[in-house]
Structures are given as structure tokens and as C-alpha cells.
Write a structure and sequence with these properties.
Number of helices: 6
Number of strands: 0
Radius of gyration: 27 Å
Order of helices and strands: HHHHHH
Structural class: mainly alpha
Largest sheet: none
Distance between the termini: 73 Å
Length: about 160
């Protein structure tokens, strides 16, 4: 019979003071990111993407004034036509949302009690999506709603 010696001591690398300092610095940097909050320009961009973007105002109808004078309700108005989103605006808003996604992926785990895995997964999927130009508005609205959902989970900055 042959005896085999087994090494029982784990081969661990010594943790130096520099390693501890790096870990502490990484932790402090992530906490400072979490304390920064959400920039105002992101909120403005979200509002632009979620607005109705109405087209030109419809001319006033004289018939409505006549109906109002005799006490009848005006006819139902059609919803405003949605103005098309220019390719430049769509690209600018999508780029802003992609930058916000990068920031939110870093901040969100530190600002919520439970890690928002599904919300972050959806944001990353939307970040990688490249829609056709005719689908840009609906894509940006879905992206904006995903960002708003994550911001709701993160809570209000002011307490």
C-alpha cells in the first residue's frame, strides 16, 4: 500500500493593508454614488418621453360657441394627434436613458432594501435594444416607465 499525503492547509493569499484599503475605498465610492441622487436633467428627459407630444393646436370652431350659447354640450373632441419624434430627439433621449441606466445599475442596489433584480434586468434589456425609427416613441416610453419604476423603488431623495 502506498500512503498519500494530503495538504490540509488552504493556499490563501495574505490580505495586506493595501487590499483592505482598496475594499474600503470601493465601498465608500459606491456609497457616495448612492448618496448623489438623481440628476434633474434625467427627470426632464423622462417627462419629455412620457408627454403626449401634441401636434399643432386645432383651430377653434365657431359652432362650439353657438352650441354653448344655446346650452348644448360641445361635440366630443378627438384626441390630439401625436407629433412625430425626430430621429435626433429620439437618439438624444435614448442616449440619456442609456447613461442613466449605467448610473442606476450602480446606485439602485445601495438605495433599496431588496436588490431590484427584475427591474435592473429590464433596464439592461432596454439599454441593449435598438428599435426601428417608427417604433422609437413607444420604445422610449417603455424605457422611461422602466426607469420610473426603479426610481419609485429607490424612494424619494428628500426626507
Amino acid at each position: 500500500m502506498v500512503a498519500v499525503e494530503v495538504a490540509t492547509a488552504p493556499s490563501r493569499r495574505q490580505v495586506t493593508k493595501r487590499d483592505v484599503a482598496k475594499r474600503r475605498l470601493a465601498h465608500l465610492l459606491s456609497r457616495s454614488l448612492a448618496d448623489e441622487g438623481i440628476p434633474d436633467d434625467l427627470i426632464t428627459t423622462l417627462e419629455k418621453a412620457l408627454s403626449d407630444r401634441p401636434g399643432p393646436a386645432a383651430p377653434s370652431r365657431k359652432f362650439d360657441d353657438l352650441l354653448a350659447r344655446i346650452g348644448l354640450p360641445p361635440p366630443r373632441l378627438r384626441p390630439p394627434e401625436v407629433a412625430p419624434l425626430s430621429l435626433e430627439d429620439a437618439a438624444r433621449i435614448a442616449d440619456r436613458f442609456r447613461r442613466a441606466t449605467h448610473q442606476l445599475v450602480q446606485i439602485a442596489p445601495h438605495r433599496v432594501a431588496l436588490n431590484p433584480i427584475e427591474e435592473l434586468r429590464l433596464l439592461l434589456a432596454l439599454r441593449n435594444e435598438r428599435p426601428a425609427p417608427d417604433m422609437a416613441l413607444s420604445y422610449l416610453r417603455r424605457y422611461a416607465l422602466a426607469i420610473v419604476a426603479l426610481l419609485d423603488l429607490m424612494g424619494d431623495d428628500e426626507e
